[in-house]
Specification:
The structure is a single chain. The chain folds into three domains: 39 residues, no CATH class; 64 residues, Dna Ligase, domain 1 (2-Layer Sandwich), CATH 3.30.1490.20; 105 residues, ATP-grasp fold, B domain (D-amino Acid Aminotransferase, Chain A, domain 1, 2-Layer Sandwich). It is α+β, with helices and mostly antiparallel strands.
């Protein structure tokens, strides 16, 4: 066996930073086993998981998440009443292993529910969450158990996703300007998953001011010129120092 980067086998590396999206989790775990076999130091890498298993861990650790419903049924009409009871309208539909908001849909009523679930990819699984009314969400970067960066993402008019790929505007703030409850939630979520590097997406209900954790990204995008660059460098320095 061999695992190479630019023609060089990674078993010859001093240190490897492993990072993965949902779709590549199996591959990254395989690389972790490869590195462990050759005793090459690396960052933590999980076995394959999903947003569903993450949500369970958050709930078990008393981290507030939106009301969530999942069923393995392929015909949504078989569980419509249970879904409506759990999430009500409006609700958000998400890919169980999706990223960057792909396949996510805002559903306002039963008619939209049937229309938007009619032709979904058969090789994917979806879950539903109650829509939390909001004006922006927080993206909080956590490295080695400490908050190192924070941004507020404001979505475009007519869009429900607070994501840069969908036109959202990012505003970076100093760490001391991030509300304490948001920072604590991000750190707690990272610890619940056993991660040393992550970014938590946290919504604030504009009516109740209550914070909700949406998800934790293991491979967050890093914006050029932002504090995220310094956070990534700090994380890597700490990892390398631990080898000394």
């Amino acid at each position: 066996m061999s695992a190479t980067v630019n023609g060089k086998d990674i078993k010859e590396f001093s240190f490897v930073w492993l990072s993965s999206y949902w779709a590549s989790r199996n591959l990254i775990y395989a690389i972790r086993l490869y590195l462990d076999h050759y005793r090459v130091a690396h960052t933590f890498a999980e076995k394959s998981t999903s947003k569903l298993t993450d949500l369970l861990k958050f709930a078990f650790n008393d981290i507030c998440v939106p009301d969530t419903f999942y069923s393995d049924k392929t015909d949504i009409s078989e569980v419509t009443l249970e879904l409506e009871q759990a999430c009500n309208y409006p609700m958000i539909m998400k890919d169980l292993k999706g990223s960057r908001g792909k396949y996510s849909e805002l559903i306002n009523n039963r008619e939209e529910l049937f229309a938007k679930t009619a032709n979904l990819p058969k090789n994917k699984k979806f879950f539903f969450q109650k829509f939390i009314p909001n004006e922006y969400d927080w993206g909080v970067l956590v490295a080695n158990g400490e908050v190192v960066s924070g941004e507020m993402s404001y979505r475009n008019a007519g869009e429900f996703r607070n994501h840069r790929l969908h036109g959202a505007t990012e505003i970076f703030v100093d760490v001391d300007q991030i509300p304490d409850n948001v920072k604590k939630m991000a750190i707690k979520a990272s610890k619940a998953l056993g991660l040393s590097w992550s970014r938590s997406d946290i919504l604030i209900d504009k009516n109740t001011n209550k914070a909700y954790l949406l998800e934790v990204n293991r491979a967050p995008g890093i914006t050029s010129g932002s504090a995220e660059i310094e956070g990534a460098q700090s994380f890597l320095n700490t990892q390398l120092l631990s080898l000394a």
